[in-house]
Amino acid sequence: MDRLFTLSLRYRFFTLVAVILVIAIGLWSLTRLTIDAMPDLTPVQVQILTRSPALGPVEVEQFVTFPIEASLNGLPALRELRSVSRYGLSAVTAIFEDQTDIYRARQLVTERLARAMERIPVEYGRPIVGPLTTGLGEVYQFTVKGKGYSAMALRTILEWEIGMRLRAVPGVVEVNIWGGEPQQFQVVVDPAKLLSYKLSLRQVFEALERNNAIAGGGYIEHQREQLLIRGEALATQVADLVRIVVARGPGGVPIFISDLAEVKEASALRIGAATAMGEGETVIGMVQMLAGENAQQVVERVKSRVREIEAILPPGVTIEPYYDRTIFVSKVMSTVRNNLLEGGLLVMAVLFLFLGDLRAGVIVASAIPLSMLIAFSGMMQAGLSGNLMSLGAIDFGLLVDGSVVMVDNILRRLAKKGVMSQEARLSEIQAAGREVLRPMTLAVSIIILVYVPILALTGIEGKMFRPMALTVILALAGSLLLAVTVTPLLALWFVRAKPGHEETRVIGMLRRAYEPCLRWAIARPAWVVTPAIGLFVVSLGITGWLGIEFVPRLDEGDMAIQVWRLPSVSLSESVRNALDVERVLRQFPEVVQVVTRTGSPEVATDVMGVEMSDVFVILKPQHEWTTAGTREDLIAKMKPAILEAVPGVGLGFTQPIEMRFNELIAGTRSDLAVKIFGPDLDVLKKQAEAVARQLETVQGAADVKVEQVAGLPLLRVIVDREQIARYGLTADDVLTLVQATRVGHVVGTVVQGPRRFDLVVRLADSALADPAALGSLLIPTGHGELVPLSRVAAIRVDTGPAQISREHVQRRIVVETNIRGRDLGSFAAEAQRTVAREVSLPIGYELTWGGQFQHLQEATSRLAVVVPITLLLILGVLSVIFGAMRPALLIFLNVPLALSGGILALWLRGLPLSISAVIGFIALFGIAVLNGVVLVSHIRLLESEGLPTEQAITQGAMDRLRPVLMTALVASLGFLPMAVATSMGAEVQRPLATVVIGGLLTSTLLTLLVIPALYAHMCRRRECQERNESFDRIH
């Protein structure tokens, strides 16, 4: 550093050019930096989705889910396998270790899927890999409306006109669809007519398959040209289908499809729906962003494309967005921007106030933008995004610490010398710089060093805080480089200190107040040390009262309400139910818009049954609320209002992104989840209900919910093998009839330009009025007989599983609960005690605790390693700096006093101990040690120059009063806006900032009083010669 310092002053032009390059590269990097609201916490995962419309949950698990799990099990770096099997749908999620490349993971899964497909019958569906997106991928959602257009027409427009064009937007990976009616061409067969012509369903299938095709005949050469030969018999409309001949009757009279069935464009069997504002069903499009893309840029491209699409839509059809992630991102980044701006202004005010020199203040303050530009360049190269954590936790006060020490010493020495020539000024600045260069470098390096262990964090806390640590390290490294090179150069050019200029009026007042206190403390060290020890002991006692949580809940500004009903409820009833909920919510003046998604979308990335709904409530800014002051107050009023209007439903209140993150990370949507594993679903359900009853007794439990795994009504058609053998039938004859009852049998595709629609054969609804009507359906035998279905199969109404969830290749059930009015740690501890005492699991069953609590446990265990390593690094570096352990331990005493202040600050503000707060403590330790290094180094320098010990302590403390106070004040005030902000996103920063401010308050008092007192006490008891000799190795 000494050589760099010298060269920067010698080659001033090149230093200036380097600064200009730093500014240019930093600004270029800033324009290309990915901006988002928060880090993406989604684990590396691949979703495998399979639609099996003919299968129930048990069959989906047995024939689809299990083969996929068996094929994926044992993949390299595979951490966890989760799956959900529902009616007509299998969703398997493979979660990999965090460092796994997502494209490599998808490649591995795709390779293994080929093996799984060999074990899954074609008629049960084909597995597909889900879109490459994350929990932050749902960036833009909209409804499609059109007066006079049917739900089927609107969905068709969305799927083929809007969706196809939006998928072509760079950064968009999928446009998912909820609601509307999926269009099919249906051949609805009348069983009576079919039997009157003595035909079978299979003949209808074959006729449609043979008469809806194309063929190629190669080419011929004609008149020196090549003509392709193509045979065309594709059906493109209903009229083409009705004239297809199935067979010929007596006399060769053709029997057309129209003689046997009604051919129409109709809706496929739906597994989801969408409603809005209590006004009826709608169609929703959800734009999903490719993982790693810039949300703001993608959404802007989508908006631009939407404007183009609207110009070509049919008259009266409109696209109405209701969720735009850029609004959330803008609000959060506005919070970050305001906090940084306000913190920067406060820092500059302190600099001007304490330095008493406008030019010197500007020189020191210039380190802030230049350090940030260096950080932006590093973030760009490291692939980091600018978000609430990576940018929001930067303290501008830290970025000027090195420059403060440098400029303060330059001002002090120049003021003593008075007016000098340029050469003399250069020499004096070089001497001033060298005097503080080593302790300043080491002190800033310690702050950098304490952030290094944070880079070792993994899991959710690693995804949150590693970007923050890396950004701070980049900014601090840049600030140190600037303090060594640019700051002395600017001081040479612009600072004009005069005699007496070393002390401003504020510093003079502080010196006069500090000196008697310092002399009193040196004379009576026990009177200073004892209260410090007492404060530390009290703070440790308070820690048990703080409560514990994983991370503070980020207020997204909007609300998501999960609604669940009995598994037996129909889609139509769920839709009516959802409309009632929306009408209740519309009555609240805080609500801007309400949109509900029921069931699963077209690409079933969100696996829900028709009994489940997600209600998205778009709210006004909180300062415009009239009936509630906080989110908790609003929930407390909404919940009883909904339950009064719609009794019997279950409700869970959360937020859109939070809900998605919880589901993707932990497989559940709530704060805390109790997972019970075992083979029998009935036993699992019984045990889960017992756990739920106990959770409801714990204070703070809200929205307790047992995963609904049973209660799905079934109409079972069980083939009697003896009877089908007697009549010469096969099981396939019976099952073909069963499949044609409602879901239908796909026999081809109807092509209309770029659009493709399934061609399906099914039976008329009149033949399916009840189980008896189903049993009376006749099956033709090979002997010309007609046999009722009830004669060859048992038909019974039964109940079965509604959903089968698996984890680690075992069946499991989840009991979920949100937590309100209480911290996560104490709630989980009490819940664990209660459940362990009251619930006894059978042999072969086990229980685990998951959700946010699981992340808290994992983070706590990792921080239990990181924090001690940080403290040992600090102590080790201090011992290297001073060449002895005694002064290192003296400065290290800043750590417990800083800890005391941080804990007391959390307690006074009523904030629980969270991972954010712990990261704040780690940062605080480095800042607290910095001032101790600067003070003790200067005292030892004065001792080495021959001053008596007590005089060196007194003069050293007085000389370093200004830099110590400035360092502490600028660091504290830099975090102050984060500590007091109430805007969106401030919740996550508040604990970290509170810890740093509180800790600096107590550690600064320690630096200014306790360290000089203890230093004097140590020197009175033994000779200081050894330490003076070791100091020569440093300076």
Could you please describe the fold and organization of this structure?
By secondary structure, this protein is α+β, with helices and mostly antiparallel strands. Strand 10 and strand 11 form a beta hairpin. It contains 36 helices and 30 strands.
Brief write-up:
By secondary structure, the chain is α+β, with helices and mostly antiparallel strands.
Q: Which overall shape is indicated by the principal axes computed on the Cα atoms?
A: elongated
* Poorly predicted residue ranges: none
Overall radius of gyration: 36 Å
Examine the coordinates and then state which fold CATH places here, giving the name of the CATH topology of the domain at 505-546 and 883-1035.
Multidrug efflux transporter AcrB transmembrane fold
CATH-level-4 superfamily name of the domain at 505-546 and 883-1035 = Multidrug efflux transporter AcrB transmembrane domain
Mean pLDDT: 85
Number of helices: 36
Beta-strand portion reads 15-25%
CATH top level of the domain at 505-546 and 883-1035 is Mainly Alpha
| CATH-derived architecture of the domain at 505-546 and 883-1035 | Up-down Bundle
Largest β-sheet summary: 9 strands, antiparallel
Query: What structural class results from the helix and strand content?
Result: alpha+beta
Instruction: Determine the N-to-C terminus distance.
Output: 13 Å
User: What share of residues is helical?
Assistant: 40-55%
- What's the total count of β strands? 30
